[in-house]
Amino acid sequence: MKTSYNNISRKDFIKSSALAMTGLTLLPGAMTASPFFDDQNIWAKGKLSLKNVRLETGFTYEDGEVISTKTDLFYIEVENGKITKITTNQPNAKAAIDAKGLLMLPAFKDMHIHLDKTFYGDKWQAVRKRTGGIKGMIELEQKMLPDMLKNSTFKAEKMIELLQSKGTSYARSHVNIEPTSKLQSLKNLQKALDNKKKGFGAELVAFPQHGVFYTDSAPYLKEAAKMDIDFIGGVDPFNVDGNIEKVVDFTVQLALDNKKGIDIHLHETGDSGLKTVEYLIKKVNENPVLKGKTYLSHCFILAKLEAAKQEEIAEKLAEAQIGIVSTIPFGRLVMPIPTLYKHHVTVLTGNDSIVDHWNTFGTGSVLEKANLMAQVYGYSTEFALSRSLKLATGNVLPLDDKGTQQWPKAGDQANFVLLNANCSAEAVSRISNVESLVHQGNVVF
Ligand SMILES: [Zn+2]
Question: For the whole model, what pTM was predicted?
Answer without folding.
Answer: 0.91
